[in-house]
Design a protein that fits this description.
Chain lengths: 164, 97
Amino acid sequence: MSSGLDAAELSAAKRVAIVHERIDAAMVTDAMKAGADGAVCVFDGIVRDNTRGRRTLYLDYEAYEAMALAQMRDLAAEAVTRFKVREVAILHRLGRLVVGETSVLIVVASAHRGAAFEACRWVIDTLKKTVPIWKKEQFEDGAVWADGEPFPEEIVGSAEGAVR
Amino acid sequence: MLLAMRVRVLFFGVLRDSMGVAERELELETGATVQEVVERCRAGAEGGVWEALAIAVNQEYARRERVLAEGDEVALLPPVSGGRSRSSSAGLDGAIV
């Protein structure tokens, strides 16, 4: 099955992408490697078979797509600046995903492993709090929108004491 | 004279399900803020998610006091759950739909 991307196609523009087809983690990882790199750190987020012990049949991911892509591009660029890694790829898949499939893939290429680990961790943690993507979990006996993590204070601002 | 403007409001995730639509158009007085959009949409609606929303105006996060302009796209965003997040027990929605 094609991922819709092949190694030759993994241009800078496609290193941050929202896709509707299967993500080929191995292909993306290989395509990210360059001579100056001493490390490639990969976070491959996959669909788990249960939530709190309840069996998951599949997940439906949806996004505020234009904004999500812009946020992902900002994240990749900020990770490069902040951690001084060479290159960051962020791919997120939307639509219906079954157990074991990749929903999000983050690949960080860097001269040194420390920065690669740190940048990878920061990207996934920040993505999960700020990039407008939601998932609905389908169980045997019903579906539920997954609880999100609370938005960081800098995003919601004064929402708590919202001015009237 | 009452000057009016129109904005487009988008709903996502659990909010879209509870509103029953993905978007609506709102007519507001000139000078209206994000907060007024939230209050107009919320009128009569229940659920804890309203306390936890973030708002984007023209695809960038915005604060409640942001003043809107004609044609703005205002998105009401429930807490996000991309990636493969941990299970939370916070129960912001929890409703079987």
